[in-house]
């Protein structure tokens, strides 16, 4: 009897291996050979699912954004302020897995400078986050769209800066989260 293969699970395993390679070696260190070794599969298997290294790297970028969005969707029943706080704090690395994720995110940010496809994925994700923050601020505070946009951009910039400081171990995750909680409550 033929073995049933879960193709989505196999693709996910390869993407996760890609992220580990990126976290260890940067995007410039990605090769199909490295990812195959990390995933415990053949290079042919990766080519079967993704075709090329560039397609794999782009799929990894999209998966990273989709994973963050999925985490946000889990807050659907929360109050607007709690959901806003989730958007602000989800990127703060609180453990080794979070540190890997943020390291990979910043590798993609660097790649986006010269890669239009990656830039488009990241720009759409950031615009989506900004739009959702505006919506949540309006719902929570009754602010005008213009006021909410200014507040959302300020909060997102603060979250980005605090995330970077936690990533380089200049600030503890709890401190960063506390600062964001205070700012979300005050804004």
Describe this structure as you would to a colleague:
With 187 residues, this protein is an all-alpha fold. Helix content is 78%, strand content 0%. It has 9 helices and no strands. It has helices at residues 7-25, 32-39, 43-50, 53-73, 80-89, 96-112, 116-141, 145-167, 173-186. Helix 1 packs across helix 4, helix 5 packs antiparallel against helix 9 (173-186) and helix 7 (116-141) crosses helix 8. The protein is elongated and about 60 Å long. The mean pLDDT is 94.
Keywords, please?
9 helices, elongated, mainly alpha, 187 residues, 78% helix, 0% strand
User: Whole-number average pLDDT?
Assistant: 94
Helix content range: over 70%
Q: Which residue ranges are poorly predicted, with pLDDT under 50 across at least 5 consecutive positions?
A: none
Return the structural class: mainly alpha
The end-to-end span amounts to: 61 Å
Mind telling me the C-alpha Rg? Answer: 18 Å
Topology:
Blueprint: H1 7-25, H2 32-39, H3 43-50, H4 53-73, H5 80-89, H6 96-112, H7 116-141, H8 145-167, H9 173-186
Helix pairs in contact: 1-2, 1-4, 1-6, 2-3, 4-7, 5-7, 5-9, 6-7, 7-8, 8-9
């Amino acid at each position: 009897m033929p073995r049933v293969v879960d193709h989505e699970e196999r693709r996910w395993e390869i993407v996760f291996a890609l992220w580990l390679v990126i976290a260890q070696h940067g995007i410039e260190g990605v090769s199909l050979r490295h990812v195959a070794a990390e995933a415990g599969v053949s290079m042919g298997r990766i080519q079967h699912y993704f075709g090329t290294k560039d397609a794999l790297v782009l799929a990894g970028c999209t998966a990273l954004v989709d994973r963050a969005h999925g985490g946000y969707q889990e807050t659907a029943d929360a109050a607007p302020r709690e959901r806003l706080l989730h958007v602000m704090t989800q990127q703060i690395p609180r453990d080794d897995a979070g540190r890997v994720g943020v390291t990979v995110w910043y590798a993609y940010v660097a790649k986006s400078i010269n890669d239009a496809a990656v830039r488009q994925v990241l720009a759409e994700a950031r615009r989506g986050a900004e739009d959702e923050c505006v919506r949540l601020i309006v719902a929570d505070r009754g602010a005008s769209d213009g006021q909410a946009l200014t507040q959302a951009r300020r909060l997102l910039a603060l979250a980005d800066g605090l995330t970077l400081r936690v990533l380089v171990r200049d600030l503890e995750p709890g401190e960063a989260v506390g600062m964001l909680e205070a700012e979300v409550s005050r804004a």
